[in-house]
Automatic annotation (TrEMBL):
Domain annotation Secretion system C-terminal sorting: ranges: 591-663
Pfam name, any one: Por_Secre_tail
InterPro entries: GH, Secre_tail
NCBIfam families tied to this protein: Por_Secre_tail (TIGR04183)
Protein name per Swiss-Prot or TrEMBL: T9SS type A sorting domain-containing protein
Length: 664
């Protein structure tokens, strides 16, 4: 039975209002398919139905199961998104009516499944008719059900997957990638047009290809609703995420011209949690996955009934609900930095070929050499072949892999950034504590006294502070999760209104070997980057000459202190237009992004840039230029030439603007 204290904690983040419009797009933990679970951590449900069940014969409709499923899904007032499966779940009668049935085989000729011929004109007619009939029926439901239906995911392939075949098919039915993309566009446009004028709004959730930007960008331009991001909720530290970041992050986090954000879901299915690497530390992995989703800006993570009912996941789910949906920095109540180091075999600067081996994704010895370098800090490499392959192979790995390829550097951060991370602190992996079921410890950072790494420095995102110092306008709370190991101590310092490097509390370890949280309230924070190393606040070693490991640093403020709409309990798209204009004006335009050689920086409002600053991922200033120009060109050689992510700050008359660029 779940602890009552946890239930009280949930109520801080959940407001299950009765008015449909106030909760229609609520972010957080959503239940995946199956029997509806009653649990205070759930913010909504995903429901699935089959075309075969709904239309058992040509134009004959059976709504009994559909209606019951929707009624059961919303019975406790939670919103739902529904799906109608096709492919193997299409009704059998369509084949008797002329739609070709395509047999799918493996490379040895064994039949592994079947599919309708998607390009067939009859199939298109029946499929589109089903879409229209389902929508018409949804509009006849009682308001207590209809008003809580907030989305429909367009299903074109197996279950909700991107439209495709599995295996080999006869030549006359074969379709290439371009043809599948055109079918995806045709069906998506039809679905979108069918639901675009609904009231209350039912959004189309699209599922473009997991790899590559073509379908996702087309969808955003032509069917601007919501999207599924395949792997973002299935794990963390996945290969080639730098490339994906270059086209997906802004889609998820920059508002459209009307102020709306694209909302995104992903799911953690049983197949993911049964992988060898996951089973070794399931609660640590769940928390790391939640941190990964928060960093990306994931709005919903779908969890199975079993995961929701496992009390060991409660703390990770509450943590995700705390941050989910907060996409407008200046109106968000929380900022977080989940501490970690990244061992990227593609990083030729940190891991030169002369020491670690040829820089090649398939060079397994290079991965082994990197892992061995950090083995004393807990880094593991247990399935090296999977570590060199695709993100789906990473998710299915038989063992723990702390080395990968083309990985996003640094911590999992949202509005709170660590400065000079690798110069002032060190990474730790697979950290053991007195509680083997703790969610903390998959990653961490901390002191390395012997190598003069004695501090962690933090910068609160300028946009979070509305691009001006806080000046003690309201109090903020900092929470530091640390491993209480040994007898060392640490102290918090911060940029206060009256002192640029003010000392705060000192925390002494008691050697319990448990993860503990220190909560520090600052009534007089200024946060103008006047602290040591240009920080807003810092955590420093304070005696006993002992190393201390930290897991998460969080900063919070009340919703009333920032004003405006805060998206931690509702994601309504009603937006103050003046606030939207202010937010967009505070955005830097960086093109191309990712960049190979030269990129261009300009402010979204066209105001001249007076000073341009560029920092590498470790927080070191690598470029500074005083100018008066609307648009500046920067060559990669001017910032050192290395591939990776760089943070940009530009001073204009409107204030300090921020952005990022990926150099490939």
């Amino acid at each position: 039975m779940k602890n009552i204290i946890l239930f009280v904690a949930y109520t801080c983040f959940l407001t299950h209002a009765t008015q449909a419009q106030s909760i229609e797009t609520r972010p957080g933990i959503w239940q995946y398919f199956g029997t509806p679970a009653s649990d205070p951590v759930i913010d909504g449900r995903l429901l699935n139905f089959t075309w075969a069940e709904i239309e058992p014969s040509d134009n004959s409709w059976n709504w009994a199961g559909f209606d019951k499923g929707l009624s059961d899904g919303v019975k406790d007032g939670l919103p739902v998104i529904f799906m109608v499966y096709t492919k193997q779940d299409a009704p059998g009668w369509i084949y008797n009516a002329g739609v070709p049935k395509v047999t799918e085989t493996d490379n040895r000729g064994k039949v592994i499944g079947y599919s309708p011929y998607y390009a067939d004109a009859d199939y298109k007619f029946y499929f589109k008719r089903m879409i229209q009939k389902v929508h018409s029926h949804v509009e006849t439901l009682s308001p207590s059900v209809r008003n809580l239906v907030i989305g429909v995911q367009g299903c074109y392939g197996s279950t909700g997957d991107y439209i495709s075949y599995a295996g080999n098919v006869p030549a006359q039915y074969a379709l290439d990638g371009k043809q599948f993309l055109e079918l995806y566009k045709e069906f998506s446009q039809y679905y979108y047009d069918e639901y675009k004028n609904t009231s209350p709004k039912i959004y189309l959730m699209s599922n473009p290809r997991n790899q590559g930007s073509d379908a996702a960008l087309w969808t955003e331009d032509n069917c601007p609703g919501w999207q599924k991001a395949g792997t973002l909720g299935k794990g963390f530290q996945l290969n080639d995420e730098v490339t994906k970041y270059g086209w997906l992050y802004n889609l998820m986090n920059v508002p459209r011209a009307n102020g709306e954000y694209m909302r995104v879901r992903s799911e953690l299915a049983a197949a993911n949690t049964s992988a060898g690497w996951w089973k070794k530390s399931p609660y640590k992995n769940m928390f790391a996955t939640m941190c990964y989703g928060i960093m990306w800006g994931l709005d919903w993570t779908n969890q199975t009934y079993n995961e929701i009912k496992d009390a060991g996941n409660d703390s990770a789910f509450v943590f995700f609900n705390k941050y989910a949906g907060q996409k407008e920095a200046s109106k968000s109540t929380n900022a977080v930095c989940a501490l970690k180091d990244v061992l990227d075999a593609a990083d030729a600067v940190r891991f030169p070929a002369s020491v670690y081996g040829n820089v090649s994704q398939s060079n397994t010895q290079r991965y082994v050499n990197i892992a061995n370098k950090y083995a004393s800090k807990g880094a593991l490499l247990e399935d090296v072949r999977s570590a060199t392959l695709s993100e789906m192979d990473n998710i299915r790995a038989a063992g723990i892999n702390d080395v990968g390829w083309n990985l996003l550097p640094g911590n999992y951060e949202r509005y709170l950034h660590q400065l000079n991370a690798n110069q002032t602190s060190t990474g730790y992996w697979n950290i053991q504590s007195a509680d083997p079921n703790s969610m903390y410890g998959k990653f961490g950072r901390g002191f390395d006294i012997a190598n003069n790494m004695t501090a962690l420095y933090f910068d609160v995102d300028n946009a979070f502070l509305a691009n001006k110092p806080l000046a003690a306008k309201y109090q903020v709370t900092i929470e530091v999760t640390y491993l209480d190991q040994g007898k060392g101590s640490w102290q918090l310092f911060y940029d206060a209104k009256s002192s640029k490097d003010k000392a705060s509390v000192t925390v002494k370890c008691t050697n319990s070997n448990k993860w503990k949280k220190a909560t520090i309230t600052l009534p007089d924070a200024n946060f103008a980057n006047r602290g040591k190393a240009g920080s807003d606040f810092s955590i420093r070693s304070a005696g006993k000459n002992q190393n201390i490991i930290f897991s998460v640093v969080e900063l919070s403020r009340s919703a009333g202190s920032v004003g405006g709409k805060v998206f931690n309990t509702s994601m309504q798209t009603t937006t103050n237009t003046s606030a939207v204009a202010e937010n967009k004006a505070a955005v830097l335009s960086v093109n191309p992004n990712p960049a190979q050689q030269t990129f261009y920086v300009q402010s979204a409002d066209g105001k001249p840039i007076k000073q341009l600053l560029i920092y590498n991922v470790s927080g070191r200033l690598v470029f500074q230029k005083n100018v008066t120009a609307v648009r500046l060109a920067v060559n990669r050689n001017e910032i050192g030439g290395a591939s990776g992510i760089y943070f940009i700050k530009a001073q204009t008359d409107a204030g300090m603007l921020t952005g990022r660029v990926i150099i490939q």
